[in-house]
Every structure is written in C-alpha cells, then in structure tokens.
Design a protein that fits this description.
The chain is α+β, with helices and mostly antiparallel strands. It has three domains: 142 residues; 100 residues, 2-Layer Sandwich (Beta-Lactamase); 166 residues, Heat Shock Protein 90, CATH 3.30.565.10. It is 54% helix and 20% strand. It has twelve helices and 13 strands. The strands form three sheets. The chain has a five-stranded antiparallel sheet, with helices on both faces. The structure holds adenosine-5'-diphosphate (ADP).
Length: 492
Amino acid sequence: MFLARRLILMLVVLTALGGSVAYFTTEMGLTGSGEKARHLGWFVFALMTALSIIMVILIWQSLSQSLRRIRHQLRQFEAEDKIGMIMIDEKDELAELVGAINHYLTRIKTHFQENRIHQKELEIQAWVSEAERHQTEAVIYSISEAVLVTDKFDELLMANQAAQELFRFRLKSSYRHPVSEVIDDKELLELIGQTRQHKSRNVTRLLERHDPQIGKTLSLKVMLSCVLDQKDEIIGVVVVIHDMTAEKEIARLKDDFVSSVSHELKTPLASIAAYVEMLADDEANNEQQWKEFCETIQEQARRLNRLIDNILNISRIESGLMQIARENLDLTGVAHEVIATMRAQAREKDIELVPEFTPEKLMISADRDMIFQALMNLVSNALKYSPPGRKVFIRLGENARRQAVLEVQDYGAGIPHHSLEHIFDKFYRVQENSALSGGTGLGLHLVKQIVQTVHSGEVKVKTNPGRGSTFTILLPLCQTPQSPPVNLSTRA
Ligand code: ADP
C-alpha cells in the first residue's frame, strides 16, 4: 500500500508534467518538433491519468478487501463470544492500525480474564454464603422458640415459623420491610431499637402480650443480642422469644393445687380433731351420739384416705412404678361395691343412686382396686356437682366393639364447653363449678390414667351446661368371659 501510494504520487506528477507540456505547446501554437512535444505531452497526460485511475481502483479494491476481512473476523469473534486478534497480510498503515487495535484488544482480554476469575470467586463466595444462610435458616427454623433477625436498618431479615405464628405475619411478604411495619408490639420494637443503639448483648426481658385472637395474655421471655462485625460495626439484632405462658399456667395450677390440697387435708383433719376432742372431753351424751361422732371421724378419715390415694396413685402410674394386679374381674360386682360405698354420701345430699345393669356378666382383665377407684371418682363427682334431690344413674352394658360400657350420668351443673378439652388435665378445676365443692383437680386425671394408660380403654364425657353430664368408660371385655379368674401381676 505504501508503494502504491508512491506510485500514484509519481503518476500524478507525470500526469501534471504531461498535461503542462501539452497545455503550453498548444498555447504557444508550436509546429514541427514542438508539435511532437505537444502530442507526447497529451499522450503522457492521458496515459498517466488512466494509470492513476487504474491504480486508485486497485488500491480501493485491496483496501475494501482488507476491511471486509477485518469485519468478518470481528463478526466471528462476536458470534463465538470471545476476544481474539485481527489478522491481516498487509504491512502498511492499515497493519499498524490493526496492530494498535490488537494491542488494545489484548489488554481488554487480560482485564476480561481477570474479571472472569474475580467473578468466579465472587460466585463461589456467594454460593458459600447462600449455603451458610440456608444452614442458619434450617437451624433457626428448627428452634421451637420464636426467632427474629433484623439488619442494621431495623428491617426484617429472618423469622422462623414460631415467630410468624406468634406475631401473625408471613415472612415472604415482610422480608426486608421495617420491623415496625411487621410487628405490632411497641415494647418489643423499642427493645430492638435500644439493643441496636447501645450495641447490647444478651439482654433479657419479660413481656406480657395480649393476643386478642385467642383472648389470652401471653408471658414472653425475650432475649436480644446485637450482632457486630470484626470492625465493631452493627450487622443486626437477633431476638429469641420463649413463650412461658404454659409454664406459668402450670406453676399457677401447682400453686392452686398446693393450696387446695392443704385445704382438702385441713378440713377433714380439723373435723377429726374436733370430734376426737369432744370424745376425749366426754361430750357425747349417750351411746347413739358417741356412735355418730365415731362415724363422722371414720368418714373424714376415709375422705383423707381417698385424697392421699389419688395423689399417690397418680404419681405411681406416671412414674411407672405402680404394681398392677390384673385379674378376671366382674364389673357388675365392682359397680355394686362402689354404689354401696357411696350410698351414705348420696343420702346426705338426698340423691338417689340408680343402677341400670345388664343381666350379662361383664368380665374384664383389670386391677380391681384401680377400677373401683376410677368408678368411685366419677360417682363422687356426680354427687359433688349435683344439687340435692337429683338422681345419678350408673349404667353397665356392652357395645358392638366388644367393650364393657360403664356410664355415670348426673343432672347437675354440667361442664362449660370451653373447659371440656382440659377436664382430664392434672390439677384442672372448672372455675364456674368450684363454688359447688372443694377438690384438687386430680380425680378425672386419675380416671384417665387408670382407664387409658393402664387398661387401654377410653374415657369420654358428654355434657349439657346447667343440665348435667355423662361420663363413659370403655374397657375391652375378656375373650372368654366365663373362664375362671387368673391372677396376672404386671408392672406398668
Ligand atoms: P375435683 O377434685 O376438682 O373434683 P376432678 O378432676 O374430679 O377434680 O374434676 C375436675 C373438674 O371437673 C372439677 O373441678 C369439676 O368442676 C368438673 N367436673 C367433674 N365431674 C363433674 C360433673 N359430674 N359435673 C360437673 N362438673 C364436673
């Protein structure tokens, strides 16, 4: 190309020279050898002009071919998504330009490769942090306590299921929202703000939170900690909330239990002490009165005995230490015994105990004392929570599932529906009925333990508040009801 340019320059000079000779000889009107010179001049001018045009066309063609090749290579790089070197055969200014472009491309390629490596590293880091985040989330999600994590702007970053249920929000729609828009607990929000501001660690507070949906006040133990990075900069705040409502409720029930047990123990003890004192002071005027005093002492002693039995039996069954003396037992006989035992108490309240027993023998494999205790607790409750003058039915029968059905029906206070799910809980007493009679909230729990835990039976209750209740015990009947009793002693 460099040569071609010189050639064109030479041709242009020759064209100009030929043209000038032809022009001046024409102007001067020379003849002879002058005319020859004029012809030669025009010839040179025409030839050089033609040669120049041909040279320009050739150079143009070669240039556009090189440019096409460059364009083609660039398109190929683009299609293959790579940065390559442009190759041309020429060794002229175009080659210099391509060389400069190639140099520039090499630098871009180096930067590009460095960036790629950097990007890969970042991707790996992101992947590792993502995996770590998943792990942390899995740990947080498996915690039964409610956990909230906020960032340094008090926006919600993480919350487990327990937290979402406690504060009733969905993490999906609350992620990265200001925590004050997600949680409607002013006290907790203030605590989060203060923990972040003071960069505090291991702050523990007790909060009470009224939940209008369940109509209960929850007792929450809130533990907060500000998380800092290596430069002591705040990353966020972690909040762990332990719901202590149930624990508090149990503690309250235990307190109630202790006071009701002491009350229950004190009443018969005080009565026994008073009657013994009267006997010691010879206050019984005649044998009849003396007998009455003794009967009262005996009855109160039995009451004490029943209470202590209930407490001991529950703890023995629960600890698995109870010796169970199984035998083939005729349920009708046990039911008769219970009625006989409770008759005096029923008479005192003018309540009639009405047995309705099937004539069939109902044989079960069970511990006599325990079944006696369970049935007695039900009959005793029926008497305690019925007003005087009513009837209590004790029914015995068999159902289609070959189970003995033992029913105690009364027409007393009944049980409010909201208490039904707790009625068999330990220490639970129905507030509305507590004025009717003293108690410890252990009787029904013991019935359930005896029937369900020890004898694999079922216990159910149907009730009509203000109109009465029916408690039903279902126990599996023996396969061979008429076979002679066999004594089975097993450990629970
Ligand atoms: P308690 O010693 O208080 O009687 P229980 O465990 O036997 O304890 O009964 C729990 C609660 O269930 C009682 O406090 C009582 O309010 C209620 N209850 C039990 N049986 C009856 C019944 N037949 N009628 C009405 N309420 C009953």
